Amino acid sequence: MDTSLNEKVKNSIQFLRDRKSRIYFLVQDTKGNAKASVRLIYQTAKSLLDAGFNPIILHEKKEYAGVVAWLDEEYMSIPHRSIEGQNLEISPEDFIIVPEIFGYVMEQIKNLPCGKIVLTQNYNHIVETLQPGQNWSQYGVFKCITTTTRQQEYIETVMRQSSFDVIKPYISEKFYPKSQPPMPQSPLWRAASQMSAPDRHR
Fold this sequence. Notes:
202 residues, 7-stranded parallel sheet, globular, alpha/beta
């Protein structure tokens, strides 16, 4: 290993130790609509920011609605960058977290020197935007973060060359299993329940 390359490796290792490496989280623009998968990404990025790391929310277009309309405004304190019209700074010590729905982006980032990780929250989407016969390893992606061991077991049958970490999302106490099954509702009952009281008695 020559001196210059050796120095670059040392610098990259030091950046990782100092938590200066960039962690890009690719997100969908929900146009101001709430979406649980995007919420998890923002929560993860905010946790990393609070812990002294360097997360960056990455969106495709310059015009980005953000999440202020349905998430706390503090989440917009995370640095944001758009792919459109910018030359992103990418170094070997950086990471790009790609949601499974962005399979088509993997072709565009396959030659980048950084670490590439797929975040899979819904295994139904893992091949939705890939060409038939393609898999993540063809794009240099060998790491997957998912949310349940059941999903991991399923994904492993399709993406066999990937390693996995399971990170369960936080679920507040507002959501809990019911002791009894829900009562069946007919379409007519649902329509009536959505009407205002004066409308029901016309």
